[in-house]
Amino acid sequence: MASTDKPTDPEYNKEARPPPPATVNYFAFDVSLRVLLFAAAVTAVVVIVTSDQTKFIPMLGILRKAKFKHSPAFVYFVVAHCVAGLYSIITTLASLSVISKPNLSTKFLLHFAFWDVLILGLVASATGTAGGVAYVGLKGNNHVGWVKICNNYDKFCQHLAGSLAVSLFASFVLVLLVWLSVYSLHCRVPK
Amino acid sequence: MASTDKPTDPEYNKEARPPPPATVNYFAFDVSLRVLLFAAAVTAVVVIVTSDQTKFIPMLGILRKAKFKHSPAFVYFVVAHCVAGLYSIITTLASLSVISKPNLSTKFLLHFAFWDVLILGLVASATGTAGGVAYVGLKGNNHVGWVKICNNYDKFCQHLAGSLAVSLFASFVLVLLVWLSVYSLHCRVPK
């Protein structure tokens, strides 16, 4: 009988509300996603930076280079992913520090969600920018006379495609990170 | 003395925790932002759809049209902003319904934040895609022989620039919407 009485005991309620949040589990998942984001950002940068290709163009009779630096869109893509990579290192360390100091977790969740949204905007726009220009490179545009280049620079375009795929994955990881922070905050709100 | 005793009174604490959320104020701001998002999405679509321009090209001796439909990047941009506009109508109605039923507000905040993040990713990537291709139109790319077109099609490019600026504003409104939901959830977590 003593056990069924417990919920009506004021001292018991005082202890039970708010419920202890599952901080370690949440932040362990958060750290894993941030490490994944770091890996994706570094991979995207490495793959696009190593895309340079030199090819002999028979029509012009000369050697020509395709470099990611030739397009401001790809330079923006690299800068955005360097920022995302750096951000993932800082927030992984911050997330690890929360595991040792769980009392700060609610504040960190708010800050993580705020910044993750901004980095998502940056990475998604960079993916779009590079993707838009890469598509012109792949298909060309007859209406304005932009020729396709992927028939000549196959390695260059393969690297671009790989890098864009990884960047899309990084955007997805950032969406998951925001969802995780929001869901964790929602779980702490008393019903 | 009675007033200083109040905080130690268990009955007083029971009433004070959790504090009543300022649902109407929050959702009034939320509705305003969603109306702003709708206006931005519609403006971006209207401005880019009305950008078509016909010009006489002296070098070719013919009339040529510049149309947004000629580039898949701009078509993606229009589709993304139509989705964002439709989404803003649905969520404005949902947000208005919460003002009349405040007990559902926490659940709605979670759903809003989840979906707003996805729409932000869509709008940001569409802005990047169209921006990347518009930049090639503005500056050209000598390395791959893509000529600039904005020196001929001035009205077309002005419309593109205007539409991109409004789209950037829409992305910013979506970031604010996510921040607002996250902050409101954070305020409801007991300290």
Automatic annotation (TrEMBL), chains A, B:
**Where in the cell?**
Cell membrane
> Where is each Casparian strip membrane protein domain found?
29-172
- Listed InterPro entries: CASP/CASPL (IPR006459), CASP_dom (IPR006702), CASPL (IPR044173)
The UniProt entry, under Pfam families, shows: CASP_dom
Give membrane topology per the record: Multi-pass membrane protein
A single GO CC term for this protein reads: plasma membrane
Q: Which UniProt keywords apply?
A: Cell membrane, Membrane, Transmembrane, Transmembrane helix
Answer whether the UniProt record assigns the keyword Glycoprotein to this protein.
no
* Residues spanning the membrane: 31-52, 73-100, 112-138, 159-182
Q: According to its UniProt record, which protein family does this protein belong to?
A: Belongs to the Casparian strip membrane proteins (CASP) family.
- Assembly and interactions? Homodimer and heterodimers.
Q: What is this protein called?
A: CASP-like protein
Per the UniProt record, the source organism is: Lithocarpus litseifolius
Q: What is the lineage of its organism?
A: Eukaryota, Viridiplantae, Streptophyta, Embryophyta, Tracheophyta
